[in-house]
Specification:
It is a single chain. The chain is an all-alpha fold. It has one domain. Helices cover 76% and strands 2% of the residues. It has a two-stranded antiparallel ribbon with strand order 1-2. Helix 6 runs antiparallel to helix 9.
């Protein structure tokens, strides 16, 4: 005799999927927003707006080459950060050590984003006609927009303190302070670059969140209408 599936199985599965959607949605929004920082089409113009060619004394093409290598080493690896100019390393030992720390943080974040994406794709295929699923995605997106707006305002009002706190969370004390007069890392990515980057990331993140919230509301309404 075959066993019947408990009547409460489907609702429990739906609740579990909704909770997973609420956890994974902010991760994917953060991943999509932060990807901007590793896109040369955005990074290079931002560097020019920050006056990097004047600060480094390097031509624009050389700045683009160095930046491309650093982005590749930070995101794909191997984390050598051994790019040179005229045979001389661009970064000193302390700067390369910090960038290896950056690589480690990014690699962990990439794994989390990949797991969240896999979960959302798998669950989304199964629950694409579920109003509960789309409501969960929408609630998570709206919460991300609200939190992102709040954090963005804090960064705008207290950037130096917020930036220092961010660095201390992810990196060892003393491993991220460099002299912009002689060390290339802060010349290539000065504080004005990071101010613009933070502002842009928060705007993009909030925009994605609101668009996803509105889209999810529409899809949830369509799902309810089909059931009705």
């Amino acid at each position: 005799m075959s066993k019947q599936r408990p009547a409460g199985g489907a609702p429990r599965d739906g609740r579990r999927a909704a909770w997973l959607a609420m956890a994974a949605t902010p991760v994917l929004i953060a991943g999509a927003s932060l990807a901007l920082l590793f896109n040369p089409w955005w990074v290079l113009p931002a560097q020019q707006r920050a006056g990097v060619t004047g600060t480094t004394g390097l031509p624009e093409a050389e700045v683009a080459r160095i930046t491309g290598v650093l982005i590749s080493d930070a995101t794909v690896g191997p984390p050598d950060f051994a790019v040179t100019v005229g045979g001389t390393p661009v970064l000193d030992a302390a700067e390369r050590g910090h960038m290896r720390d950056v690589f480690g943080v990014l690699r962990a974040f990439e794994v989390v984003v990949a797991l969240a994406a896999a979960a959302m794709i798998g669950l989304g295929i199964r629950n694409r006609a579920s109003a509960r699923w789309w409501r969960a995605v929408g609630r998570a997106a709206l919460a991300t927009a609200v939190v992102g707006s709040g954090v963005g305002i804090l960064f705008a009002l207290f950037f130096d303190a917020a930036w220092l706190a961010f660095q201390r969370v992810f990196f060892a004390e003393g491993s991220f302070s460099f002299d912009p007069r002689v060390e290339r890392l802060t010349q290539l990515f000065p504080i004005s670059f990071w101010t613009e980057a933070a502002t842009t990331v928060f705007i993009v993140g909030v925009s994605i969140s609101l668009a996803l919230w509105l889209g999810s509301r529409h899809l949830a309404s369509r799902s309810r209408a089909r059931l009705g």
